[in-house]
Write a structure and sequence with these properties.
The complex is a heterodimer of chains A (about 300) and B (about 400). Chain A is an all-alpha fold and about 300 residues long. Chain A has 14 helices and two strands; from the N terminus they run ααααααααββαααααα. In chain A, α1 crosses α6, α2 packs antiparallel against α6 and α9 runs antiparallel to α11. The longest helix of chain A is centred in the C-terminal third of the chain and has 55 residues. The C terminus of chain A is likely disordered. With about 400 residues, chain B is mainly beta. The chains are: A mainly alpha (about 300), B mainly beta (about 400). At the A-B interface, α4, α6, α7 and α11 of A face α1 of B.
Chain lengths: ~300, ~400
């Protein structure tokens, strides 16, 4: 099964190499883009959910504080606001799905770049008979100062891997200006946010460190993939921000309309009352609701807001 | 998605947040393990290198270089490199009481700026095990070494996996000059009248001045080459096997093509020239014999061996010995032919045999590594293929 997967990827890479003028780097770039496109739905879903979960943190924190002695109730309340505790775990999913791809890619690069005589024999026996391998050889293993089958001797690629991965992760989080004080405060005493914060730094450092011993080809895959991830993160963030702004605008318009409607109602029933007097009236309504036994929790109100 | 309200549930318990945290660290740990696996360079990725000189057979494989007594099949010495991760696949060069070979390189990691650290080891070929180290050349080459070296006077010449061909001082291992090729060099050069001739995967055959590494000529050929060129002195021709499925005859003076002889598949192994005839093989297991001057076929039918042939054909007296291996079955064979191409005997081996056979007192000796088993070196009787001795390296005690 694993061998079949490697053979499949190997044939795609050889095809891309042939189709793109025997340029290994172009083939690698095309392959990375192809992989990212295939994983796009999963990545987008994960990214949206990650941003949404982080935005919910103040509410989650409030619930956790309020119901710290009643686990069952805490879970119910979280469910009510649409917080799904399994979703943060999904954050690992795109990475896990990508893992077999880059382990296989590691093998494919080693086989294709003919780092050993054994790998050339392997390449010959594994690719489809339709490819004229003798004609495709030698597979160009050089790019700028790099031998793509060996690690970057000047450590530029490991730095790029770490840098782009950091940026990509950064774009997976809500924009700083969107974080209000409450969210920041919530972050400080939220272990999950702290973990994410620490992952923001540890993952790029770890990948950068390992990229020192990867073949340059694999490190290039990471850099290209991360750059695409940054672009994708930027677009998702913008579209989410836009959707949020539109929803805010709609809410505002609705509030204004409602206020205007109440003003008119008050005007009709109470004669010449000023607009400012509508607030005590609304308060009185709320008081009535409370006294009639309807509980209004912060959870419910936020849920209502959300639905709007 | 719904919640499991049970108190012991991972997600609904009080421990939910720490569980997420633990899972993330678990994923991180898995990543570290896999990424570490990705960065390992010291895995067995090539086949053994074998040389016979005097009364000894020398074999390099993975992290061992062994010297074996050619008569008894007993180990004389074993060398395990300077570090556990050092691997050797190049056939050892034995000259002036010294065994010289390059290693496969180890990733230097953070402390070496990510570079591949490749060393050339010169060992004193005595009776002491491990042998005394004469010198170790570090930082002289930067690419993995598969090719055997060639010593001419006080210089050692060898090609590397990172597209270089270098000349080293035989006494110290210090680099004298370096020549850049377009791709890897996988076999040793030959030296004729002060000129070195060698092939590369870059589809070129090179002629360099041994003195200073100046290019005399380079000939673009129809395919990549992994073997060494062979000289026909009387016709002043160089024979080169090509992945284009041909044996090429080049004029030694300028590298121009004199003629080409066909094969069914890639010609990987170094051709053999003997008594006016060139013998060569291909990856489909066919053996060919052509006239050294015209390239005309000498045999009516090409004999076949099981699997593919990546090595050169060995001539002992009037017998040809061919090693072969089948990738699909993981088995191989050694086959003996007479000079007319008639099979004399064939012995099956439970592994692919990619290295060439070498001659020890008129008998062929082969090296191979069966799957999940250690290296084996076997000496056969040239007459009938009977096994004279079989060697497996003993496991060294860790001191």
């Amino acid at each position: 099964m694993w061998q079949t997967f490697i053979d499949f990827m190997l044939n795609i890479m050889v095809y891309l190499y042939q189709a793109l003028g025997n340029n290994f780097l172009l083939a690698l770039a095309a392959f990375t883009i192809l992989t990212r496109v295939l994983l796009l739905p999963l990545n987008l879903r994960q990214q949206r959910s990650s941003i949404r979960m982080q935005e919910m943190q103040p509410q989650v924190q409030a619930i956790q504080k309020k119901y710290k002695d009643d686990q069952k109730r805490m879970m119910e309340e979280m469910q009510k606001i649409g917080y799904n505790p399994t979703e943060p775990l999904l954050g690992c999913l795109p990475l896990l799905v990508q893992m077999p791809i880059f382990f296989a890619l590691f093998r494919v690069i080693n086989i294709m770049l003919l780092s050993t005589p054994q790998s050339l024999l392997e390449l010959k026996s594994r690719i489809s008979a339709g490819f004229d391998l003798a004609n495709l050889l030698p597979i160009d293993n050089e790019f700028l100062w790099l031998n793509l089958a060996q690690p970057d001797p000047y450590l530029i690629l490991p730095v790029l891997v770490a840098g782009t991965m950091f940026l990509q992760q950064k774009f997976m989080m809500p924009a700083k200006k969107e974080e209000d004080k409450k969210q920041k405060a919530a972050k400080e005493d939220n272990p999950m946010a702290q973990t994410q914060q620490s992952m923001l730094y540890t993952m790029p450092i770890m990948f950068g460190f390992f990229a020192m011993s990867f073949n340059s080809g694999l490190a290039i895959y990471f850099v290209i993939s991360n750059i695409i991830g940054i672009g994708q993160g930027y677009i998702t963030r913008r579209s989410l921000a836009q959707a949020r702004a539109e929803s805010e605008a709609r809410k505002k318009a609705r509030k204004e309309n409602a206020a205007l409607g109440e003003g008119l109602e008050d005007g009709d029933s109470g004669g010449a009352q000023s607009n400012g007097s509508s607030k005590p009236a609304a308060k009185a309504k709320k008081q009535d609701k409370k006294s009639s036994g309807q509980k209004s929790s912060p959870v419910k109100s936020s849920r209502k807001k959300k639905r709007r | 998605m719904t919640f499991d309200s049970g108190e012991d549930s991972l997600l609904s318990s009080q421990n939910f947040q720490p569980s997420v945290k633990r899972l993330r660290w678990f994923v991180l740990l898995i990543l570290i393990l896999f990424l570490t696996a990705c960065s390992v360079t010291g895995v067995s990725e090539s086949w053994p290198g074998i040389t016979a000189e005097g009364s000894r057979v020398y074999v390099s494989n993975a992290n061992q270089v062994v010297a074996i007594d050619g008569q008894s099949g007993e180990q004389v010495w074993q060398y395990n490199g300077q570090a556990a991760s050092e691997n050797f696949y190049a056939p050892p060069l034995v000259e002036d009481g010294r065994v010289v070979l390059g290693d496969f390189g180890v990733s230097g990691g953070i402390f070496a700026g990510g570079r591949l650290l490749v060393k050339i080891h010169a060992l004193v070929d005595g009776d002491q095990s491990p042998p005394q180290v004469d010198w170790i050349a570090e930082d002289q080459v930067s690419g993995r070494i598969f090719a055997s070296a060639l010593q001419v006077d006080d210089r050692i010449f060898l090609g590397t996996g990172d597209n270089k061909f270098v000349a080293l001082d035989a006494a110290t291992g210090e680099k004298i000059w370096e020549f850049a090729t377009g791709n890897s060099v996988w076999d040793k050069p030959i030296h004729v009248d002060g000129i070195l001739y060698f092939t590369s995967l870059d589809k070129n055959v090179y002629a360099l001045a041994a003195e200073d590494g100046d290019l005399v000529w380079s000939a673009s050929v129809s395919g990549a080459s992994a073997g060494s060129p062979v000289l026909n002195e009387s016709a002043d021709l160089l024979y080169v096997g090509s992945f284009s499925g041909e044996l090429l005859a080049l004029n030694r003076a300028d590298g121009s093509l004199a003629w080409e002889a066909p094969a069914e598949d890639w010609v990987w192994g170094t051709p053999l020239y003997h008594d006016g005839i060139v013998y060569y093989s291909d990856l489909s297991g066919n053996i060919y014999a052509v006239d050294g001057e015209s390239g005309e076929s000498v045999w009516n039918n090409s004999p076949e061996v099981p699997g593919s042939v990546e090595s050169e054909i060995l001539l002992i007296d009037d017998q040809l010995f061919v090693t072969s291996g089948d990738v699909d079955t993981g088995t191989g064979a050694i086959t003996a032919f007479n000079l007319e191409g008639q099979e004399l005997w064939q012995k099956d081996v439970d592994a692919e045999v990619q290295p060439p056979p070498v001659s020890m007192d008129g008998d062929p000796v082969i090296a191979f590594v069966p799957e999940d088993e250690p290296l084996q070196v076997v000496r056969y009787d040239a007459e009938n293929g009977a096994i004279l001795w079989r060697f497996t390296p003993p496991i060294e005690d860790e001191e």
